[in-house]
Amino acid sequence: MSTFEKIDVNKVKLTFSVDAARFEEGLKYSYNKNKGKINVPGFRKGKAPRKMIEAQYGKAVFYDDAINFVLPEAYESAVKEHELDVVSRPEIDITAIDDNGVSFTAEVYIKPEVKIEGYKGLEVAKANLEVSDEELEAELKKDQEKNARIVTVTDRPVQDGDIVTIDFKGYIDDVAFEGGEGKDYDLEIGTHTFIDNFEEQLIGTNVGDDVTVNVTFPENYGKSDIAGKAAKFDVEIKDIKFKEYPELNDEFVQDTTEFETLEEYKNELVGKLLAQKTTNAKNEKQESILTQLIEKAEMDVPDAMIENDIDMKIDEFSRNIQQQGLSLDMYLEYMGQNLQAMRDAYRPISEKQVKGRLVLEAVAAAENFDVTDDEVQAEIKRISEAYHMEYDKLKDVLRDEDKKNLINDLKVQKALDFVTENAVEVEKAE
Question: What are the backbone angles phi and psi of residue 159, rounded to the nearest 5°?
Fold first, then answer.
């Protein structure tokens, strides 16, 4: 048996215990785990009886591992008994421990109540789903870029758009700085790959020229030791090239695509651009709707929910960069950041996502959305295909808790689709 009391808006204290018989199981587990590490005169390691060890070191010698053995089950049982939706790690205290067993308290945050009205008929800006001539030309330009021919220049100075091969070395206060040197570097003028107006200062130079370029590093530059400082670079112009773009015609289309004419290919590009615009418009519409729902909702979200979401984002980011051979500490040092700054950057994103999910769960509950078994199986199939897993194997390894979360996810998606379908599009204000 257990009890709980509310100690704050969304915080409760659970009181629960483990009886003597169950705690004895924990003590036996702890003894078997630790007996090989304990020295008792007259006995080889691992051979001393439990009572002898307890007599020499006290009964408490086995308490830690015994508590770790019995606590998880006892805590989970108390949570289920009171049907609590816990959203934070428990703060556990041991209130009593003796021959009768062990008693605990656990303070936890629970999911907040959310009140939401007026979620139907939300106004969203009407999207522009037309593809302009400029957008089409930009896509065609990309194809020209991919198929451009690089031509060496021998009879003129550097122009905007040229690719210049350079050697360079940077100085701050006449002292060379780390990372400020490069050899045979291909720099495309006009891409603003380098800081400040570095590239513009190379226009008009010729092969063989030695040039001094003066720039100032941005205040928010990634390396704090040179951020905001003036620098000069000694630059040698070693080669000048430019991109010669192919002519856009039927022949170009036949050589580079499966289409026969430029007109057919343009129609294909327009279709792709329209599909992309439609997807983007849907995402923007849903973002707008989520923002409005959060503003309309009444809820007191525990900070623990936000912090837990930030923890998950940082853990995921850390795993991703580890695959590239970087640790999180190395990344933060390189970027001139610290972990707290990273958490602060994630906080507004996590806050919106946590609140957005809570409010959509409230909409799903208000509309009494249900999820069928067929929908669950279809989602498992979708996940298996997305992660290249066998459907039956994934289905077998899913725990009851995983299936419960999957069903909740489907309800949240239904709620988002519902409020999106019931939104009203209005013309954008000029």
Answer: -120, 165
**pLDDT score at 396:** 87
Task: Point out which residues pair with 168 in neighbouring strands.
Answer: 182, 235
Residue reference for tokens 């909702």: 297
Helix axis angle for 400-421 and 339-366, nearest 10°, is 70
Burial of residue 11 (number of CB atoms within 10 Å: 0-12, 13-18, 19+):
middle
408 and 283 within one domain: yes
Span 184-193, pLDDT tens digits: 999 999 999 8
240 and 266 co-located in one domain: no
Number of domains into which the chain is organized: 3
Domain span at residue 6 reads: 2-109
Alpha-carbon span 399 to 254, nearest angstrom: 53
Does 240 share its domain with 267? no
The per-residue pLDDT for 139 is 94
Same domain, 177 and 271: no
Q: Which of 409, 148, 131 is nearest to 273 (CA)?
A: 131
Virtual CA dihedral for 215, 221, 224, 227, nearest 10 degrees?
A: 20
Distance from the Cα of residue 392 to its chain's centroid: 29
Q: Which helix (H) or strand (E) holds 170?
A: strand 163-172
For residue 428, pLDDT beyond 80: no
Q: In this structure, is the dihedral angle defined by the CA atoms of residues 388, 393, 395 and 398, taken in order, positive or negative?
A: negative
Contacts 24+ apart (CB under 8 A), 267-270: 269/136, 269/139, 269/140, 270/131, 270/136
How far CA 213 is from CA of 178, 193, 200, 348, 397, in Å, comes to 17, 15, 10, 40, 62
pLDDT in the model for residue 158:
95
What is the model's pLDDT at position 412?
A: 95
Tokens 């050589």 belong to: 255
pLDDT at residue 296 in the model: 95
Give the 3-state secondary structure of residue 390: coil
Q: Any idea which residue has 């580079």 for tokens?
A: 256
Q: 179 pLDDT exceeds 60? A: yes
